[in-house]
Amino acid sequence: MTLLGRELILGVGGGISAYKSAELLRRLQDIGFGVTVIPTRSSLNFVGSATWEALSGRPVNPNLWNNVHEVPHIKAARGADLIVVAPATADLIAKVANGFADDLLTSVISASVAPIVFVPAMHPEMWSNAATQENVAKLRKRNFLVIEPDEGRMTGEDFGIGRYPEISKIINEISVFAEINSDLLGKKILVTAGGTREALDPVRYIGNNSSGKQGYAIAKAARNRGAEVTLISANSHLPKIDGIRTLEVSSTQELQSALVAEFPSCDVLFMSAAVADARPLAPSSQKIKKSQLQTIELTQNEDLLAQASSNKRKDQILVAFAAETGAIDIEAAKVKLTNKGADLLYLNDVTDGAIFGKDQTSGVLINSDGSTLKCDIQDKDTLADLLLDHARNKLG
């Protein structure tokens, strides 16, 4: 299984160790998850909704019958990339193992196709009970991860197996189970996407065919790997991506202003937007008559890539993109990479409109050390992770 995003439901069962899940929530946030807490009604006797709302920054709904018109259990189930139930009581394990769905949490679990993790915590006698062990076996047979509880001090003077596991153990087992890659945690990634437009008059513009799909794919992949992502989107009609700060621009000068503001604080810049090389020297405030359109006087736009490179710190990585038609000239692209001061350059052939607006791409990745990597036809999502791998390696 592969974790596609970073939306997690933390289900909280009605046990005394519910308070430990407050720390688990924080650690899940640390590895890049947005966490929505769904407590059982009984768990609110131990930790109240106000605590979960304050820690998660999100509203808490413990009741299946609130906002029924939104069908909350289906909405939550479809939006979750991972479900973690901690603590999982003997009662909660029994309900899920035997298909009960009589509250919001168990209904969400019943409706979800996401990876599901149970973190049992209960008294030793309850954990070793034959019914509990049979129910745990049922969950594991269904490919749920049930983390073994620790041995130690319980409430009162009790001691034995059933203690809420250490947070580090839970995070490690979840990460392996759900294949969570957090190698960009703590990094700030800046991505430009789409194509700039230069107004000729209020109706017409000079532009290009870039859809923004590659930039959006990079932004989403970086978010999924734990990065803090800012996306500067130029005239793309793609939907916004949850968890990504998106700035919308239109012209090259607007994109330039956004880069000046955002580039200093990023670790990696992916310049995937197609930037117009020139703009009308004197755009008209009124629609130009057809008879007056014989010629358009242009002036060259700033080279935004070169400008960013000139202000680049030694610990920043700059990834450039180039689109050519006809035969790919790798040697010329290497010169361009050097002249622009980039660390990596992705070069592709867009002859006859290839790649623009498509879900797949192909090209050549050129490294500043002179090495090249041919990228055969692949999804733009696949290329996004490949580019992030190389940028991460450059960061060290």
Please describe what this structure looks like.
The chain has 396 residues and is α/β, with parallel strands linked by helices. It has 2 domains: 171 residues, 3-Layer(aba) Sandwich (Rossmann fold); 208 residues, CoaB-like (Rossmann fold), CATH 3.40.50.10300. The chain is 32% helix and 25% strand. The strands form 5 sheets. It has an 8-stranded mixed β-sheet with strand order 12-11-8-13-16-17-18-19, with helices on both faces. Helix 1 links the parallel strand 1 and strand 2. The chain is elongated, with a radius of gyration of 26 Å. It starts with 6 loop residues before the first strand and ends with a helix.
Oligomer: single chain
The CATH superfamily title of the largest domain = CoaB-like
Total discrete domains: 2
If helices are DSSP runs of H or I spanning 4 or more residues, what is the number of helices?
Answer: 13
Which spans have pLDDT < 50 for at least 5 consecutive residues?
none
Shape descriptor: elongated
Number of strands: 19
Distance between the termini: 28 Å
CATH topology of the largest domain: Rossmann fold
